[in-house]
Design goal:
single chain; alpha+beta; 2 domains; three-stranded antiparallel beta sheet; three-stranded mixed beta sheet; 9 helices; 14% strand; ArdC_N
Length: 310
Amino acid sequence: MARNSKTPRSNVERADIYQEITDQIIALLEHGVRPWSPSCASGSASLPLRTCGAHYQGINILLLWAQSMARGYANPTWMTFKKALELGGNVKKGERGTRIVYAGSVARKGEVGQANEEDKERRISFLKRFTVFNRQQIEGLPEELFPTPAPVIQNRDHRDPRLDSVFSALGVKIVEKDGGAFYSPSTDTITMPRFESFTSGNAYYATLAHEMSHAVGSSDRLNRETLQKYGTSVAMRAKEEMLVEISASFVCATLGMEPTEREDHAAYLASWLTVLRGEKRAIFQAATAAQAASDFILAAAEAARGQQAA
């Protein structure tokens, strides 16, 4: 039976958005591509931007990074077909857009007949798809409008005082010694290999961004379940490591660094795939938690700079 075009889509149909995007991420991982590890050399490591200059959030960053890496886009700006027209340009013939999502909620009152529920409101979450195009897919715009920035490749040979201050702002103790990198919740301490043991300063600070992303999940900060229950199951550990890798990539992009893929995380790939295949909302939850973690780190650094300037 044909469905009336005005009939609202069912919850099952809306939920398919989660499955569609999860399948995209799974396919990338199966082909050895982590959408949270863009390359600065290609210019794709910048946070994707709206035309207003604000950057996209959470899962949309991963979706746009994935397309930038696949299609070679070096420009960070994206816009809808309508916005391109409003600005005086148009999408080039034959170009395909990239589907991203908008998450929101609407208020609905309780059903009539339910005791004391007629006047109560509840929030109904929804996920809506829409299509955007990269600046490089748009023609007719002035060249000076959203120009493609020259790629900046950071390869620090020495410590960077600015980055040291960013990561010290959170108040987590950082200890450097021989061995691996890890965060200890019981002592609120990050242990890092010595600076000189890294191939570059970028590699050191990218690794520190990862461990700091663990640290903000502590009980007195974001109180993240995946950190609190880290050792209870393989799945919980995989979720925490995945969201922390994503968080570190967001921090690195904001600070002008390139994310570093740690060799020890290759072992998590199978676990990540298992989690994603079993939970179609897992990558959305990871991206949301990663956004919260990176925002926490960067907000602490901004607050510390404000206090120093006062």
